[in-house]
Each structure stands twice: as C-alpha cells, then as structure tokens.
Design goal:
Blueprint (H helix, E strand, L loop, with lengths): L28 H4 L9 E5 L8 E8 L2 E10 L2 E6 L24 E2 L6 E2 L6 E3 L11 E5 L2 E6 L7
Antiparallel strand pairs: 1-9, 2-3, 3-4, 5-6, 6-7, 8-9
The structure holds FE2/S2 (inorganic) cluster.
FE2/S2 (inorganic) cluster binds next to loops.
Length: 156
C-alpha cells in the first residue's frame, strides 16, 4: 500500500529528501475527504532536468518503509528502478548518484561491478547475471516526471 502526501514537494535531486508521508489517520471526515483515497504521485524532477546519461534519485515508501529509486534517460527514453542491486540488497551507487559507467552505456553496481542494461534493467554481467533491477512506474506530465508506484517485486 502506497502513501504519499497529495501535494508532494519537488525532489531536490540528491535523494535524501523524504517525499512521502502517511495520510492523516483519525482526522474528521470533513478533513480527510479532501485527501485522495489512495496513492498520490510524487514529482521527481522537471523532465528537462533528466538529461541523456544522467540520473536523479528520489525517495518513496513501500509498506511504510523508506526506499530509494532513481530515474534516468538512455537513448532518449526515461527509465526508473529501485536503487537495489540484485546480487546483495545494497544500493547500486555509494550515495553519490553514480549509476552509469563512464561511457553512459550501462548501469554499474559500485560494490561488485554488476552490469545492467539501462533500458531493460537486465544484469548482463556480474554475480547476478540474468536477474533484473526492480522497475518503478513513472509518467511524464505537466513538464515533470512523476513516480506513480511500483509493481510487486518478481524474483528472477
Ligand atoms: S552488491 Fe551489487 S554486484 Fe554485489
């Protein structure tokens, strides 16, 4: 179950801001009726900020636990994944927003060097070859990129 504030602020881009919070519980219905009943989307960044070969991290919650995701652009198309390696559940970066290799062709786990395809999330080389990053759902709208949720995790 996703929880987010109906008017989430824009992410600062360094991935350490928490953009989500649970909706108020126990408030009178004349107040809670102004909140959407389910998930509110979260604005990650302006579309133009996500340039080719660049990434921006953002925070979200799953089952009331903080999670981190990252969005990037590869061959003109946006992608978004949970920032979790499929070898060991560690972040792919070292908190420094470094996901792409030096040529901007693959995503790299900084810990043991697993190599992932940016457009599919598939690990093509390394200790978790054949597994895929967990994709996150995003949409482009109103000049921005919005996180809209995450499908159930499917293990490879
Ligand atoms: S933790 Fe990512 S390759 Fe080992």
């Amino acid at each position: 179950m996703w929880h987010a504030q109906p008017e989430a602020k824009e992410n600062s881009g360094h991935g350490r801001d928490t953009l989500c919070a649970s909706l108020p519980i126990g408030l009178p219905s004349f107040i809670t009726s102004h909140y959407p009943p389910a998930v509110a989307r979260i604005r990650i960044a302006a579309t133009k900020e996500i340039k080719e070969g660049k990434t921006i991290t953002f925070s979200f919650t799953r089952d009331e636990r903080p999670q981190e995701g990252f969005v990037g652009r590869f061959k003109g198309k946006l992608f978004a994944y949970e920032n979790t390696c499929r070898h060991i559940p560690l972040t792919l970066d070292y908190g420094d927003n470094r996901f792409f290799d030096s040529k901007g062709e693959t995503l790299i786990c900084q810990t043991h060097g697993a190599v992932y395809e940016p457009d599919t999330g598939l690990c093509t080389r390394g200790p978790c070859a054949g597994a895929s990053l967990f994709a996150l759902e995003i949409v482009e709208e109103d000049g921005g990129v919005w996180f809209t949720g995450s499908p159930e995790k499917e293990l490879d």
